[in-house]
Every structure is written in structure tokens, then in C-alpha cells.
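Question (not urgent): is this output format expected?
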Amino acid sequence: MLRGKTALITGGSSGIGLATARLLRNKGAHVAITGRNREKLDHAASELGDGVVPIQGDVTSIEDLSRLREKLAEKFGTVDILFANAGVAIGTPIASTDEATYQKIMDVNVKGVFFTVQAILPLMRQGGSIILNTSWLNQVGTPGRAILSASKAAVRSFTRTLAAELLGQGIRVNAVSPGSIETPIHRGNNQTEDEFRNYTDKVGAQVPLGRMGRPEEVASAVLFLASDASSYMLGAELVVDGGRAEL
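Got this back:
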């Protein structure tokens, strides 16, 4: 399905990014992944197997993004698929959220997405596909998630505006919108496995399908948007949330 194509996945060392890297590689793509932690990034690349290119970097750093583009140009020459997946999820109650937390969320989730696209765009080939990672939170009002939700709503807006802006270059932009997905981002520090299972059971009970989602289920949606199967989709958002935002 993707044989001969090249793909970059930011935040590819765990969770949705890692699952997507594995799926796109299995479908024939040459894959590069990014992450801030060198050890985690190298472990993910080793798990994915030969041919996966790990590139350490922080999406909030313009310098890192420039180096990322240079390394991709050296390794791949051009890029067919960009999955701007790197993000953070932090609770932000109105009474207790400080400026540093606000800045961190906006820097990674908004600035990071915009400037990742800007950095990689010169390498994108005509017919390429850019997929942005939003969230079900951009559609609902969830207490204690104001800044996180706003950051993901901004990414949803990027999906529309960048799709219109890049249309003339033959590059499609769409979004995938995960619900509550069982990934390391939900694990607390020093949390035991039993404590994590109690958490996933509690959150899963709030979902119409009765469970949290799996990273592979989101990866399948990304694959669809990355492939020619979605050739008539532009500025769209695929919601993968077990019905949580819709029912």
C-alpha cells in the first residue's frame, strides 16, 4: 500500500506514534521517528527493526526542526507522509494552572505542530499527505481541560487552513482525533500496574464502547489518511474515540 513512500512520525517512540510507525513500515513505507529522549527513541527504533531512522529532537525547537529537515533530506531526499503526532496532555483546572503549564501545552501542541509542518514542507512531494493529531476534546467541554482542549482545537483549525493553503501544491492535510487511548501518556509517575488498570477501567466505563482505545486503532486511521484510499478527503477529521464525543 505504501511501498516506496517515505514517512516522518513525530513523537514516534511510544504510544500512537510507535504503533503508527510499525503499521506504516509493515505497509512498505520507509519511516523516520522523532522523540526527545534518546534512550526511548533508540529502543523504539530497535523494536521496529532495520530501516527505521530515529532522529532525536524537540518539536518546540526551531533549531531541532531545521536539523530534522536536513537529516531527512540526507536519508530520504523527499517525504510523502508527515504525521505530526508529538503532544502533551496535562490537566489545567482554572483555579490552579500556572503560566508554565500553559506555555508547555501551547508550545508542544500548537507551536510544535505548526513549525513541524513548516520545516518539513520543502521536502514534501506533490501528492503527499499531512496528518495532524487533534483530540476528541476539541469537540466537547470537559472540566479541568481548558488549555489542552484549546490547543487541540487550534490543531483542528490548522487542519482546515493548511489544507486550503497547500491545496495548490498537491498536498492533502487531514486530522485524526483520538479519544481516550491506552498509552504511556496516561500513566502516572510510580503508578503500579494495578493502579493503572483501575484507571483504565474507570475511564473506559465513560466510553460508549466500554473501554479505552488501543494505539493500533488510531494507527489504522492514520494509515487510511496517509494512503490513496483517502484521496478525496481534505481538511477532514477522523474521530477515533469509541463514540465518546458523539454519543
